[in-house]
Amino acid sequence: MVIVAEPKQVVSPGELLAEGDHLLGDNAFRIGTQIYSACIGILEVDGNRVFVVPLKGNYFPRSGDLVAGRVVDVGLSGWSVDIRAPYEAMLPASETPGPRGPRRRDLSTSYDVGDIVLAEVLAFDRTRDPLLTVKGPGLGKISTGRVVEISAAKIPRLIGRKGSMISMLKKETDCQITVGQNGVVLVWGKSPHNEHVAVEAIYMVEREAHTRGLTDRIRDMISKSRMVEQVA
Amino acid sequence: MNKLPEPKQPEKLIDEKGLRIDGRRLDQLRPIKLEVGVLDKADGSAYIEQGKNKILVAVYGPREAHPKHIAMPERAVIRARYHMAPFSVDERKSPAPSRREMELSKVIRESLEPVVLTDLYPRTTIDVFIEVLQSDGGSRCAAITAASLALADAGIPMKEMVAACAVGKIEGKLALDLSDAEDKYGDADIPVALVPNAGLVTLLQMDGHLTIAEFEQGFGMALEACKTLHAMQREALKKKYATVKEEAEEAPPAEVVA
Prior knowledge:
The complex is a heterodimer.
Chain A (H helix, E strand, L loop, with lengths): L1 E2 L6 E2 L4 E4 L3 E2 L3 E4 L2 E4 L3 E6 L2 E6 L11 E9 L3 E5 L6 E4 L23 E8 L7 E3 L6 E3 L3 E4 L5 H5 L4 H10 L1 E5 L4 E6 L2 H16 L6 H18 L1
Helix pairs in contact in A: 2-4, 3-4
Chain B lengths: L31 E5 L7 E7 L2 E12 L12 E8 L14 H14 L11 E11 L4 H15 L9 E8 L2 E4 L3 H6 L2 E8 L4 E5 L2 E2 L3 H39 L8
Parallel strand pairs in B: 4-5
Antiparallel strand pairs in B: 1-2, 2-3, 3-5, 6-7, 6-8, 8-9, 8-10
Helix pairs in contact in B: 1-2, 2-4
C-alpha cells in the first residue's frame, strides 16, 4: 500500500501511481499489484481510492447529468440534440412538459434547429444513444443569456470542491450561472459588463484548471475588473 | 527549365573516425524536438522534428462514426491516415494516397491499437491524421511517436504511449535511427515500436539482410532508443501544463486600486 506518484500533480498515461490493494477509481488501471494512470490528469487519492482527474477529454454522458445542447434535427416524435458527446442525443416529444397523447402540430414550433436546450440525461447505457428530458424546473429552451463552451474535463474545477468556485463566481460577478456537465455554461447577468467578466473568469478557469490558488486569483481578477468599470 | 542536380550517393556513409554523414556516432539518435497541443481545433495534436523529419499529427475523437457501418458495437474504431505533403520530398509527391502510404497508415494504426482503451467508447471512432511536412527517413517511427503523444494530448484513455525508432545496417555496421541517405544506400532497416512498461513490441518490420546475431543486437539497440524517446514523450506532454502552471502561479497578485 504505497502511493508512488505525488498526489495533486500532473501524471501522464502509463505512469505508475501506486502499489498494493488500493481501490481503482476513474482513469486508472491495474497490472498485477501496480496501479497506472490511463490519461493525462491530476492524481487524486481519496482514502484508499486512487483516481486521475483528466485534464483533457470529451464529454461522456451519464444519466442524471444536466447538459445544454443544440438542436440539430426535428423529427416526427422528437428532436436530435448535439450535446458535445460522441453520441447524438434524442429528446422525445413525450419528455417535454404539456398534455399527453399524440400531438398534431409540427414539433419545430416548440424547438427548432439551432435552438439551445437545457436538459437532463434521462438514460444512457452505451448500447443506445442518450435520452434527454426537459421535464423539470428551469429545463427547456434557452433564449436569453450567454453560452460559454469549455472543455468538459474542466467542469469539476469550475464547480470546485463542494461548489466553492461556482458559488464564488456567482457572488462576485452577480450573475446567474448554470453549468452543464458537457462543458456548456449558461450565464445571465444584470449588465453586459457583468456577463463579460463572468465569461472571462470561466475561460480563465478552463485555462488554469490544474494550478493552485486559482479561486483567489479569479477573485482578484474580478475585483480588478470591477474597479475598471467604476473608473470608466 | 533548370534541372536540379540529382542527389548524389555519398561516397562513404561512415568516415575514418567512425562518424556518420551527419556527424553522429553509430548509436546516436538524431536531434529530436517534441511539441504538444500545437493545433487549437483538434482534440489533441503533436509535432515532431527528428533530424530533418517534420511531422504534424492531429487527433479527433472519440466521436460519432461516419459512415455508420464502420462502427463496432463493443469498441471504438481507430482510423489512421499517414500522408506526405507534395513538398515533403525532393521530387514532388502526388498528393493522392500511394501504396506505401496505405501500408504505413495500416501499420501505424496497428501499432497504436493495443494501447488505446477502445472498449470504453463503443460505436465511436478515433481519427489520427498524420501529415509529413518534410521527410528524411524513419518517418513511420517518428509518426508513431508523435501520434501516441497526440492521442494522450486528446485525453483518450490509454495504457501508455508508444515510442518507435529504427535501427539499420550501413557499410556492415549496425546504426541507430537511419537518415534518408543511410536508408537508401544502407544494407538493412528495421523499424521497431515499443510499449515500454508492458514490454510489447507493436511494430517490427525489416527490409534488407541481417544475420541473426546482428538482428538481435540491433533489436536491442532499437528498444533502448524507444525507452529514451518514451521519456521525452512524457516530458513533452507534461511541459504543456507546467508552463501554464508556472505563468499563473508566479504572476504577481492583482493590484488593488485604492
